[in-house]
Hints:
The protein has strands at about 5-10, 15, 30-40, 45-65, 70, 75-80, 85-90, 120-125. By secondary structure, the protein is mainly β. A hairpin with a 4-residue loop joins strand 4 (about 45-65) and strand 5. The chain is globular, with a radius of gyration of 19 Å. The protein starts with a strand and ends with a strand.
Amino acid sequence: MEYKVIEIVDNTRILINYGRNDGASVDQPVRVYSKGREVRDPETNKSLGNWNIIKDELTITEVFNKFSVCMKKIKVTTSILYPLENAFTSTHTRNEELNVDATQITNNVNPSSSPIQVGDLIEILKKV
Length: 128
């Protein structure tokens, strides 16, 4: 079954057509994406699938028989520096350049991510 965004409730919640009858559970992660460009093997010209455009990763917060409510949950780490102050810390990643043959770079990338829309596809992720 292909799951999709079926409604945008507000700027913090969406509904998806994946519910209890499909195996949905609270705190289950999902990925919202749209179909990206097709990738082909350069030797055989066979399709290897699509390089999908990931829009966001959300968490199911409410489950109904045929649909679920999803929200974005972020983790905030709090550490106490002084008795009366809290400091928020977060972890960031950066891309490091690869040692590649520059003459083979295609710059054939997906368009930048657009906002979540009704009809976007949903990938069900495993709970961590």
